[in-house]
Amino acid sequence: MKTSIALIVAADENNGIGKGNDLPWKLPSEMRYFMETTMNHVIIMGRKSFEAIGEPLKNRYNIVLTRDINYEREGILVVSSLEEAIFFAKLIQSQDSSTYESDYIFITGGGEVYKQALESGIITHLFFTRVHHTFDCDTFFPAFDWQQWTVIKETFHPKNDQNPYDYTIYVWKKNSKFCYNV
Question: What is the DSSP-derived secondary structure letter of residue 90?
Fold first, then answer.
């Protein structure tokens, strides 16, 4: 099975994804979706995203992308480029396939890492949650050509007692003529 490189993100109606290095909303069921979707996978995130979480995400192999060559934290692999992160993610999956699923490598943020990944042309899938509200954000999901993508799954979630905003989870697949191999 070929490994796909996927982005997973939640964004408001203006593509806002963060404020002050944190999520601007609380949606426990969407967070559970994120956790369940990325569980037992290799994940790649930027340093700021990692520091916002504060510790490696459990039951995932955490790769952190940073320009700081001296950055070290227990429980993560530190790399300095997206290409290096993808290389190690594939290596880890191939060497430990009983622990880490090989269907996807997930890029989990933040904004600059999403931008690099989309511009590189290596992303084949977007796990994209649209929060149906606008928030005061200082970090945004980058603009890109949505016409190169097709929705393969869509699930609407109405607000409820625990989740104060409506949201829709989409899974997008990049049209094959726009995909690049890594």
Answer: H
pTM of this structure: 0.93
Q: 7 and 117 in contact (C-beta within 8 Å)?
A: yes
pLDDT at position 100: 80
The 3 state secondary structure assigned to 13-56 is CCCEEEECCECCCCCHHHHHHHHHHHCCCEEEEEHHHHHHHCCC
Instruction: Dump pLDDT digits (tens) for 131-158.
Output: 999 999 999 999 989 999 999 999 999 9
**Residues noted as catalytic:** 23, 30
Number of domains in the chain: 1
Work out the angle at residue 137's Cα, subtended by the Cα atoms of residues 132 and 142, and round it to the nearest 5 degrees. 80
Please state, in angstroms and rounded to a whole number, the distance separating the CA atoms of residues 25 and 131: 9
Calpha distance 32→4 (Å, rounded) = 22
The CATH number given to whatever domain includes residue 145 is: 3.40.430.10
